[in-house]
Design a protein that fits this description.
The two termini are 18 Å apart. With 418 residues, the protein is of the alpha/beta class. The strands form 4 sheets. The chain has a 6-stranded parallel β-sheet, sandwiched between helices. A 6-stranded parallel β-sheet has the order 10-8-7-15-16-17, sandwiched between helices. A 3-stranded antiparallel β-sheet has the order 12-11-14. The chain is 37% helix and 16% strand. The protein has 17 helices and 17 strands. α10 links the parallel β7 and β8. It is elongated, with a radius of gyration of 23 Å. It folds into 2 domains: 195 residues, Phosphoglycerate kinase, N-terminal domain (Rossmann fold, 3-Layer(aba) Sandwich); 179 residues, Phosphoglycerate kinase, N-terminal domain (Rossmann fold). It binds adenosine monophosphate. Adenosine monophosphate binds next to β14.
Length: 418
């Protein structure tokens, strides 16, 4: 299945590629492009942006339109406002930084995403200018996928561009429903979305073998669907992080006070059995860095992951596990990484995640295709300054996860329908 739920055959691949080139071939001269971006960036108490990755990722899309002689209307959500307009969630806090990122470009702000202000300001836009609309989620209609609200938004632009991969898994008014109000030739993915889709499809439908999936993070329950889906595609699955201990305990091993979801143990066993019958190698961490408490100043030592004493918890994979995982990674031609190997936010438990990031970078240097996507592993490669040493780092956490779970993403389907 492709991202839009269509089947994986050659014809579909060709259609996908044709669709992909739409944006670059489109001449935006004198057009008003209405772009759904994902500007849901983290802000501190002073409203400074603490990580602008999502903004920088979409700048090439905006610049191409401006260079063509078009104008840009940006729409996004920010946070989870519950009761309509709230200063805390206003996109006005992003205007200054957006101006910095765009350089010599006029950026205006409309303090409402629909209504008179938005209509007037978008109508007055001249080629080369940018208008940022206020938070879409100030209207409940956005998340409800309300068609009338989507239609109002659609009236602001001539062309709809979806560059918000981060919300592609939501059937919201601005991410999916709106597409029906534009003819096929006037709706398309932006450059970021194109890249996300192409790279994700490469891993899921065109992976060179050996294909290793590295799955980590806290909970098995969050990653069950992705593991199940990958069982039909990967040759090797590395399981690290807190979730590994459920797999050990399910096999009757002692894991001390490590994270465990007892109710998921039967499922963990099922996965191990299914992998065996499919010939997929599952790699669990043989040893762990264990701690006497979940804290940065905990006492630590190393022991086998399947024999952790009571009062101690595994908070990172150990040296043997690193060596074993590294060997598997270096033999791979395709690598997908989702989720850290340990509590990498604390220095004492960083080594596993950092070593795996280095191994993925090394494999990439040797010619493997590597995609890091869906959650904290992205934060980890950024933290270790390795993001430019892997083939692709996805900006879409939940969206990428759902894609790798094999789900149809409404934001993609709405455009591909034509
Ligand atoms: P996820 O969002 O599911 O990818 O989980 C990421 C979180 O898992 C990070 O905040 C890590 O600190 C946490 N994590 C990773 N390994 C462990 C572990 N062994 N015990 C507890 N938490 C962990």
């Amino acid at each position: 299945m492709f991202l839009d739920g269509t089947s994986n055959n050659k014809q579909q691949t060709i259609n996908t590629k044709q669709k992909m080139s739409t944006f670059s071939n489109y001449n935006f001269s004198n057009k008003k492009a209405l772009i759904r971006v994902d500007f849901n960036v983290p802000l501190n108490d002073q409203f400074d942006i603490t990580d602008d990755t999502r903004m920088t990722a979409t700048i090439p899309t905006i610049k191409k339109i401006l260079l063509d002689g078009g104008s840009v209307i940006l729409m996004s959500h920010l946070g989870r406002p519950k009761d309509g307009p709230t200063d805390k969630y206003s996109l006005k806090h992003l205007v200054a930084h957006l101006k910095n990122l765009l350089g010599e470009v006029e950026v205006d702000f409309a303090n409402d995403c629909i209504g008179e202000v938005a209509i007037q300001k978008s109508a007055a836009l001249k080629p080369g200018q940018v208008l940022l609309l206020e938070n879409l989620r100030f209207y409940k209609e956005e998340e409800k996928g309300d068609a009338a609200f989507a239609e109002k938004l659609s009236k602001l632009g001539d062309v709809y561009v979806n560059d918000a991969f981060g919300t592609a898994h939501r059937a919201h008014a601005s991410t999916a429903v709106i597409a029906q109000f534009f003819p096929a030739e006037n709706k398309m993915f932006g450059l970021l979305m194109e890249a996300e889709v192409l790279n994700a499809e490469k891993v899921m439908h065109d992976a060179q073998k050996p294909f290793t999936a590295i799955i980590g993070g806290a909970k098995v329950s969050d990653k069950i669907l992705i593991i199940e889906n990958l069982l039909n595609r990967a040759t090797d699955i590395i399981i690290g992080g807190g979730m590994a201990y459920t797999f050990w305990k399910a096999q009757g091993k002692i894991i001390g006070n490590s994270l465990c979801e007892d109710d998921r143990m039967p499922l963990a066993l099922e996965i191990l059995e299914k992998a065996k019958s499919l010939g997929v190698n599952i790699h669990l961490p043989m040893d762990s860095t264990i701690a006497d408490k979940f804290a940065a100043d905990a006492q630590t030592t190393n022991c086998e992951s399947y024999g952790i004493p009571s009062g101690w918890m595994g908070l990172d994979i150990g040296q043997k596990a690193v060596a074993n995982f590294r060997e598997v990674i270096l033999k791979s031609k395709t690598i997908l990484w989702n989720g850290p190997m340990g509590v990498f936010e604390m220095e004492k438990f960083q080594n596993g995640t950092k070593s795996i990031a280095l191994a993925v970078a090394e494999a990439t240097k040797n010619g493997a295709f590597s995609l890091v996507g869906g959650g904290d592993s992205v934060a980890a490669v950024n933290m270790f300054h390795l993001s430019d040493q892997v083939s692709y780092v996805s900006t879409g956490g939940g969206a990428m996860l759902e894609y790798f779970e094999g789900k149809k993403l409404p934001g993609i389907a709405a455009i591909k329908k034509g």
